[in-house]
Model the fold of this input.
Amino acid sequence: MILPIVAYGHPTLRKVAENIDKDYPELDNLISDMWETMYAANGIGLAAPQVNRSIRLFVVDATVYKDEYPEAADFKKIFINAIIEEELGEEVVLGEGCLSLPGLHEDVSRKPMLRIRYLDEKFDEHIESYDGFLARVIQHEYDHIEGVLYVDRISAFRRMLLKGKLRDISNGDIDVDYRMIFPNLKRKLK
Ligand code: NI
Done:
């Protein structure tokens, strides 16, 4: 089932999400709905807060980027209760977008390497290191479970320039081809 994606301004995007355990109700269904929702919106990552669940779960499928980034070729993963234990290196600038902020794409500066500890869908623990593009995708999704959005990481000046666009997004005053929940909807949805 395709779930609506919450738009910028929604309070769930701002919460630090909670850990879950194996008994979390209908987790398999939620994960399969998140995949379906992400693919329908042409995303490469989706975090549970974006479907209005404040839990530490995100999914990533970066395989469409395999030509640009060979390391993405088999990178399809589910991250539960993730903790980024370390980020390393000189910050690198790379463009980012987000399904909760349709129409925006901004350069974001982040450290290029990380080590992450997480559980997979069987609740087996993994500790892995990533760099480059895959680290970037993980950092973006990880931010979501920490209540952070990439626009928090751009310059105050740039954010000021985007103020109108951000307001349009939370008001639902945008064209978007997937289902969304707008926190400050002013108009009737078509
Ligand atoms: Ni995002």
Notes: The beta strands are 5-6, 45-47, 57-61, 76-88, 92-96, 106-110, 113-119, 125-131, 180-181. The domain at 5-177 is CATH 3.90.45.10 (Peptide Deformylase). The pocket of nickel (II) ion is lined by residues 98-100, 140, 144 (CB under 6 Å). The longest helix spans residues 27-40.
